[in-house]
Write a structure and sequence with these properties.
Shape: elongated
Radius of gyration: 21 Å
Number of helices: 8
Strand order of the largest sheet: 3-2-1-4-5-7-6
Number of strands: 7
Helix content: 40-55%
Order of helices and strands: HHHHEHEHEEHEEEH
Largest sheet: 7 strands, mixed
């Protein structure tokens, strides 16, 4: 098994000791289960989120946040965190000079927790947390994207990123890599690892693969035509 695969990451998460504050935050995140039972009956829109696209909340460690910010060192402008959880990536991005720094999170309890963290850090009104479905967020003008999401979500998110992000955008994935993309840089080890992807390089790689497939199909058509002519 390759280092850093989802199975290994899950195994490491199970053995990692959680600090008291992490337990409190996980409790706040999982408190959403009670809320979900209520909205499941009274808010039909909530039921439109498939189970495989729902992401369990696990707080990012200090090492994970550090690795993400290390990969983004030297970048500037806005930053968007998809599935921002308790908001710690957005807060650190603001500290590093990214503005505006915006987090998108569907869990209302985590959005409230993120606002509390911003208030406690003295950044109230300086960062933004929005309760929105990440699949409906317009990414066409985003240059710096961070994601801490499950592999089942990342495999589908690739398509949205490929379709919407500009060529000069960078995507940084923490905890799990984008399954079909090739990173241009990796920081950290094990569960704390972060992967950086260049949209320009990714599109070039995709175009080259599509070109090879087209050429292969063309060669096959030529061979078939030759066989027909010979008969």
């Amino acid at each position: 098994m390759e280092d850093g695969t989802p199975d290994e990451v899950f195994a490491e998460l199970k053995t990692r000791e959680l600090r008291g504050w992490d337990v409190v935050q996980i409790a706040a995140g999982t408190g959403f289960a009670v809320y979900a039972m209520w909205v499941g009956f009274l808010q039909p829109g909530f039921r439109k989120v498939p189970l495989r696209l729902q992401v369990p909340y696990i707080p990012a460690s200090k090492a994970q946040v550090h690795n993400v910010m290390t990969l983004l060192r030297g970048r500037k402008g806005s930053l968007v965190d998809l599935g921002s959880g308790d908001g710690r990536i957005v807060l650190e991005a603001h500290r590093q000079g990214f503005t505006p720094a915006v987090g998108y999170e569907l869990n209302p309890w985590l959005v409230r927790l993120a606002h509390f963290h911003a208030w406690r850090a003295g950044f109230r009104g300086k960062v933004s947390y929005r309760r929105e479905d990440l699949w409906k967020v317009d990414l066409t003008e985003c240059k710096n994207i961070t994601v801490f999401l499950a592999p089942s979500v990342l495999s589908l998110l690739q398509e949205k990123l490929q379709a919407e992000l500009p060529d000069d955008a960078l995507v940084v994935a923490g905890r799990f890599p984008l399954p079909d993309w090739t990173p241009c840089r990796i920081e950290g080890h094990g569960v704390d690892r972060a992967w950086m992807y260049s949209m320009q390089a990714q599109r070039q790689s995709t175009n080259e693969k599509n070109g090879k497939l087209t050429a292969t199909d063309g060669d096959l058509d030529n061979e078939l035509n030759k066989e027909k002519e010979s008969t």
